[in-house]
Design brief:
Blueprint (H helix, E strand, L loop, with lengths): L1 H18 L2 H33 L3 E5 L5 H12 L4 E7 L1 H9 L2 H9 L8 E6 L4 H12 L4 E6 L1 H37 L10 H27 L8 H26 L1
Antiparallel strand pairs: 1-3, 1-4, 2-3
Length: about 260
């Protein structure tokens, strides 16, 4: 009895395998990887831009020669700039305390007789566009008592340029991909061997599983190396994508099934 069940199961699996379409699985797998890769790049670029917007936009390094009254006067001037949301003042002592928390820096600092770190003002803006950051940074730089300035505008501009360029390419890619997918689905519908629509679900699950696994490997070996905080597809995105793949694989089998009727 046990042998009979095993034999039936074996032939059942073989029968399912015969009903599957290798051509459909290959097409859906390649499409999933190709389109998924572009989607991952877009998601990670957007995430990087979002993280950059949460960072300090401008850091002003204060001249050590300023006394407390001059420092307070400088802070008030910066606070009165219209587009500034808030600021955070860090004294030389506080900066040194932060450095001492790092064991490697702590060893090097012990050698020094004086505190070489400057007092700083972290400046957060209401508007975080690169152009605004650059304009305010240049305005603060010329204030009396500001020794030097650092701002994230250059990094933001480079990232925005990459993101804009990729978004333009993505729009064209989406259009070309949709046209390609429609034509391919129509052509595949005439070449699928099996008439059974139900087996399209198996086509979708196998090709989707392979495709997302390849994308996961790309994420693990490429995106983790390229982005500070890489993101992958959420569970809901994977479920929605799987549902779309199932519909595509079912549609591929419909025309021939209808003709047979």
């Amino acid at each position: 009895m046990h042998i009979r069940v095993d034999t039936q199961l074996k032939y059942g699996i073989i029968n399912i395998m015969k009903k599957l379409s290798a051509l459909v699985i290959l097409f859906v797998t390649i499409s999933t990887v190709f389109y998924g890769f572009f989607s991952l790049v877009t998601k990670n670029l957007s995430n990087s831009l979002s993280e950059l917007s949460e960072r300090v936009e401008i850091v002003a390094f204060i001249d050590d020669k300023l006394n407390d009254n001059q420092k307070n006067e400088l802070i008030k001037k910066i606070e009165n700039i219209e587009t500034i949301d808030r600021i955070k003042y860090t004294s030389k002592t506080e900066a040194m305390d932060e450095f001492r928390k790092n064991p490697e820096f702590a060893k090097q600092i012990k050698i020094l007789e004086e505190n070489p770190l400057p007092a700083t003002i972290d400046i957060y803006l209401k508007k975080r566009e690169p152009e605004t950051v650059k304009k305010i940074a240049e305005e603060i730089k010329i204030l009396n008592g500001v020794e030097d300035i650092y701002y994230t505008s250059i990094e933001a501009e480079n990232l925005l340029t990459i993101n804009k360029t990729f978004n333009i390419l993505s729009r064209w890619f989406n259009l070309i991909f949709v046209i390609f997918a429609v034509i391919s689905v129509v052509l595949l519908s005439f070449t699928v061997q099996s008439k059974k629509i139900f087996f399209g679900i198996f086509d979708a699950l196998i090709s989707g599983g392979i495709g997302f696994y390849i994308l996961y490997l790309m994420h693990k070996h490429i995106f983790i190396q390229s982005f500070k905080t890489p993101v992958f597809f959420s569970k809901s995105e994977i479920l929605i994508s799987s549902f779309i793949l199932i519909i595509i694989c079912l549609v591929v089998r419909i025309p021939k099934n209808v003709r047979e009727k």
